[in-house]
Specification:
Keywords: Kinase, Transferase. This protein has 8 helices and 9 strands. With 262 residues, the protein is α+β, with helices and mostly antiparallel strands.
């Protein structure tokens, strides 16, 4: 049995109804396949067990997926079984090309999508994204693995922890995705987000920071995103977004360093 056939079997898809199987993602935390059948197309994701050090909570992800699917913000879930490391969603088309994230009208659409997400009532018993704990957790993993040098100087570490504590002092938290970029955005006329493995109850502006950092938005693009998103634009809000962008960039570097140790 090929790996593709094994994947289909694990997903309980009748092999006689399969038209094609295509690997669409292969990474250190999961592997995804696009399976086209006579009844429709599905994305099957198989995750591995190297998730704890990357701070992934699959049980929380399952609850969040149910909520965002019902709200039309996430993919339609066909089957989600964290114990089997299995997720099946209905295929909803291609993700954005990176260039699409720079189009002014799409920046507005991203802002509107994030406003909708942050306005949702969070599901019960989901992962709380404590930025200070996230930074400390990654630093601890790097220290324990003898890779502390990748986290930068002592001053850089201290600055990251200080910024995380400052941002965490804001009690205004919401359901957040925390990994917003073009390849996680589906556009079928209405935008949806995929890959919710880092989602949780967290800081709203961290979601805005993720798209800003991933796509290296210039100041005018960041301002457009924030002005569209915010009910009232204030200098303090801009300053917090800049702090979030700095911290997101640092956390992304830590995450990459931890991932490379797997």
């Amino acid at each position: 049995m090929s790996q593709a056939e094994a994947t289909a079997a694990l997903a309980s898809i009748d092999a006689s109804r399969i038209e094609s199987v295509q690997r669409i993602k292969h990474g250190l935390t999961n592997e995804s396949w696009l399976i086209r059948t006579v009844a429709g197309s599905y994305v099957v994701r198989l995750s591995n067990t190297s998730e704890e050090s990357l701070q992934i909570n699959r049980a929380s992800e399952a609850r969040i997926l149910e909520a965002v699917a019902a709200a039309g913000i996430g993919p339609e879930v066909v089957r989600c079984d964290p114990s089997a490391h299995l997720l099946i969603t209905r295929y909803a088309g291609k993700t954005w090309e990176p260039a699409q994230a720079f189009e002014p009208q799409n920046i507005d659409r991203i802002a509107d999508l994030l406003w909708r997400l942050h306005s949702l009532r969070p599901p019960d018993d989901i992962h709380v994204v404590d930025l200070h704990s996230v930074v400390r957790g990654y630093l601890r993993t790097l220290d324990e693995r003898g890779a502390a040098v990748t986290a930068g100087t002592k001053e850089l570490r201290e600055r990251a922890l200080q910024i995380a504590a400052t941002l965490q002092s804001d009690a205004n938290t919401s359901l957040c995705h925390n990994d917003v970029h073009a390849l996680n955005i589906l556009d079928g006329g209405t935008l949806r987000l995929i890959d919710w493995e880092y989602a949780g109850l967290g800081q709203r502006l961290f979601d805005l920071a993720s798209i800003c950092v991933y796509h290296a938005y210039r100041r005018e693009q960041r301002e457009r995103l924030l002005r569209r998103y915010a009910v009232r634009y204030e200098d303090d809000l801009w300053n917090r977004l800049e702090l979030c962008c700095w911290l997101f960039d640092y956390v992304r570097d830590l995450w990459t360093a931890v991932r490379e140790l797997q």
